[in-house]
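Hi, here's the filled form for the chain we discussed.

Project: internal
Contact: R.S.
Residues: 290
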Amino acid sequence: MDKMELSTNDSVFVTKSSEYIFKWSDLKALLKIGIINSNTLTAFAGFWLALYYTGTSLKTNWHLLLVCVIGTAFVIAGGCVLNNYYDRDIDRVMARTKNRPTVTGTVSLQHVLILGTAFSLIGLLTLSLASFQAALYGFIGWFSYVILYTMWSKRKYTINTAIGSLSGAVPPLIGWACVEPNLHPVAWILFLLVFIWQTPHFLAIAMKKVDDYRSANIPMLPVVHGFAITKRQMILYVTCLLPIPFFLHGIGYMFVILAALLTIGWFLLSVKGFFVKDDKNGQIRCLSIH
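And the returned structure, exactly as it came back:
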């Protein structure tokens, strides 16, 4: 492999002779840092609320917070790396993913597979230091993302979005189980909140990137059934979110009011979406899925 030139803001992470340079940007692309950050944040929310509902303090549980954050981050990182490894064929034909290192070849596939497996195992073992349940929920999240979403449903069913949302809703359970293995009902409300929230969020992205998904022959809802049905699905999910804040009244009425107002605002935006005229010039070429 020819030696690659590095930009001024791109540091070298590992160097092996003059023939192979592993850039920090490659590692960030493999790990999907944005996904790690957002999911670790929801794990922290579960952890924090577990402290609140059990009446324990962060001062005496700071070590469990480290286990929660580090373990969750590693499990998610491992899942993301393995997702990149498996999806390298369809990533090649999509504009937003064609520069991933698994496509360009800047990182060997063997190293990607080892990295994804190692990160996954390190994350699960770290979570087990807090509780068996924390590691179990970590594995469920990993399994639903890598196996159920990436390897099974993503290329076959329009419901792949909901299946993918399952993995993204697990981190609050991990965070809670790090403090209290026996989950409080509020932990499951958090799970439901994040699960329902993700689907309209991802459907909006699917609408924006519909040409990419169509070129890769991925059966996202707007690709298969068009924007009108996708919008109806989005408003259905947002409607299901409306009562959720009231189940979290134990956090405080200010939270309930703020969350309710934000959800109502999202609902109104979803309704407004039926009247916009920028849906890819109004032309949706549907894909036949066999």
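Let me know if anything looks off before we file it.
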